[in-house]
Structure formats: structure tokens, C-alpha cells
Amino acid sequence: MGVIRAFLALIARDLRLAGRVGGSGALSLVFFLMIVALVPFALGPDLNLLSRIGPSILWLAAVLATLIGLDRLFQADEEDGSLDLMTAAPVPLELVVLGKVTAHWLTTGLPLALAAPLFGLLVALDGTAMGATSLTLLAGTPALSFIGAVGAALTASIRRGGLILAVLVLPLMIPTLIFGVSAAQAASGGTVPFLVPLAVLGALTLIAAVVGTLAAAAALRWPE
């Protein structure tokens, strides 16, 4: 019970901090909206083309928006000494990583998934495609947060390591992006049943949760 209370307290702490400083969630939503709004201007007024590649646009925007504030996931705690206290606490460091990534997803990935149906109107998606894209984002954005946590842990002691972080984690996010887009397009009449890529996407999230948590915790211990 003490471990669970510590886990929940860590999530609540990060959520309060995110709200106090304005948080990366609002910035991610604004960035998400900017990408989704600008792409139709670049492609032109072809609604058939927009509706066909709409899920790809939303997923690509979600991947890029997830990077907003990701470099501060552990860096802020590294700078003020909180990370040293968390490392020395009796709670496993893996649980600390899990709590911080969960808080990051609640303030970034979850709002993106919930806003996807609204933003889908900008790329001419129908109701089925909007719902499918939102569901795939709910299933896949946790994987993006866990993958990003590994890069955030590796660059925690590097000032302005956002560019390095993006270079490290973007290639690792490609499988999630591929299956997320495949699942969303399958719901709109693709040749592959919708549940097949969705199940693979869920499996990728579970793998990322395990591997990402262990790898991020190991990266935070490494300077010691």
C-alpha cells in the first residue's frame, strides 16, 4: 500500500507542477492544432485526398506534439535536486519513472487522443475514421511517452538537449506510427481488419511500457 500511495502521490505532484507552470499539455494541443491546420493549406482543397491521408496527418502531428516538453521530464528534477531524492528513496526507481511517464501521458497524450475527433474535421474525416483514429491514439500514445522517457533520461543532465532527444527517440517511434496509421485506415475500409493492427499497436505499447521503464531507470542510475 505504501508503494501505491507513493506512486499516486508522484503522479499528483507532476500534474500539479504541470498545471502550475502552464504545462506542456496546452502547448502540445496548440502544436497539434497548428500542424493539422497547416497541412490542408499545403495540400490544397482536395477533400478526397485529405480524408484519405487524414489519419496519417493526425498521427504525425501527435508524434511531434508528444516531444513538446519531453526534455523536461527528468531534467527539471535533475536541476533542483529532486531526482537525487527520488533515487535515494525506498521506492524503486522504476516506479518513479512509471509515475512520471503516466503523468506526462495524462497531460499530453490523453488530451491529443480526446481532441482528435474535433481536429479530424479539419482533414475531412468521417465519423468512423474520427472514432478509429481517436481509439488508436488512446492505444498508441502511451508507447510514445515511454519511448520518449528513455531519451529524456539519457539527456537529463544535458542542457538544451531537446534536439538530441528528438534524434534519439523519433526513429524508435516509427513502428508505433506505422501501426497507428494502419489501424486508423483499416477502419475506413482497408484490406486489413481493424483489430489486427490495433492489437499490434497495443502490444507495442505494452512492450514500450516494460522496456522503456527499465531502460529509463537504468539511464538515470548510470551517472552514479
From TrEMBL:
It comes from the Bacteria. GO terms for biological process: cytochrome c biosynthetic process; cytochrome complex assembly. One of its GO terms (cellular component) is plasma membrane. It is a multi-pass membrane protein. Coiled coil: none annotated. Its main location: membrane. The chain crosses the membrane at residues 21-43, 49-70, 105-125, 137-156, 163-188, 194-220. Pfam families: CcmB. One of its GO terms (molecular function) is heme transmembrane transporter activity. Signal peptide: none annotated. Keywords: Cell inner membrane, Cell membrane, Cytochrome c-type biogenesis, Membrane, Transmembrane, Transmembrane helix, Transport. InterPro entries: Cyt_c_biogenesis_CcmB, Cyt_c_CcmB_bac. PANTHER family: CYTOCHROME C BIOGENESIS B-RELATED, HEME EXPORTER PROTEIN B. Belongs to the CcmB/CycW/HelB family. Required for the export of heme to the periplasm for the biogenesis of c-type cytochromes. This is Heme exporter protein B. It comes from Methylobacterium tardum. The lineage of its organism: Bacteria, Pseudomonadati, Pseudomonadota, Alphaproteobacteria, Hyphomicrobiales. The gene is cycW.
